[in-house]
What we know:
Its EC number is 2.3.1.234. By secondary structure, the chain is an alpha/beta fold.
Amino acid sequence: MRVLGIETSCDETGVAVYDTALSGSAGLRAHAVYSQIALHAEYGGVVPELASRDHVRKLLPLIRQTLAEAGLSVDDIDGVAYTAGPGLVGALLVGAGVARSLAWALDKPAIGVHHMEGHLLAPLMEHDPPQAPFVALLVSGGHTQLVAVDAIGRYRLLGETLDDAAGEAFDKTAKLMGLPYPGGPQLAALAETGTPGVYKFARPMTDRPGLDFSFSGLKTQVLMAWRDSDRSEKTRADIARGFEDAVVDTLAIKCERALDAAGCDVLVVAGGVGANKRLRAKLADSAARRGGRVCFPRPALCTDNGAMIAFAGALRLQAGQHDGAEVNVTPRWDMAALPAVA
Ligand code: ATP
Ligand code: MG
Ligand code: FE
């Protein structure tokens, strides 16, 4: 089954074709992402109305480009998957409207995919995919969650952030130290040149039991350290390193706790912060020490993309699930409410 995937939940237009006849990474026939970062940079954050309008401009050309790269015509598509939520309502409606119309015109099924299920399943597109049950760490711009995955489609929330998401903390911390928009990747790159241990920040909420997170206090600690510093380039890099180490250690400690609680030795990591090199290295060390396994998507499939939507949609379409003809989106959507697959 060849599934066209469409992602428009926020500020990335993503399109992909996933073919279930070719498993794993071979199934990904083509994928393309257009990022609106430059569009929103002058406002220092995503402007919802501008995001919707830009999806309108970019989506159809990107679908044509992706089909051409896959060597397919639109008639070769057996189903359409689109992000139905969570996300910005206007942005979601652009993808949903195009997906539903295309499916209707082709007389093929369409399915609305949960954006975070897309992130969560992205590692399963890689070589030697893990099998449920496993524990997933979802670390993105809007979410930080530990999820017990009993089966594909059966998700139990084990813990989540009480305030900022990990990616949001990266972005806001970068901004307060004057790094360019969006900030997270820039802060991570700067941290590479910093000296570990010069600045030591708290590992929030690791001193008590539980699997929830809190990152907003860390941001304030960085603000004070930066304000009281000489504000040199060297200091900025050292603070960036101190911040990154604090976030990475906190995530790693909670992942180990979640694996212990779930009695499981496979961890899956997804979402934009999953692209962070130090997080990848730390969780790989932890898995090696524990005799377990950690699985990540390639960095390009950690941040928003159409491939994860095509893949998650394909699993559900293959199981016979699909939506009605109406265009519906769900801007707020609990992943635990999803139906099981198969
Ligand atoms: P959500 O998926 O929760 O709706 P989103 O789609 O905006 O949010 P993603 O696209 O998954 O989030 O990830 C973007 C986030 O990942 C941003 O906050 C960004 O700063 C962060 N990020 C990307 N690369 C890195 C990196 N190398 N290190 C740390 N953070 C990163
Ligand atoms: Mg984005
Ligand atoms: Fe995302």
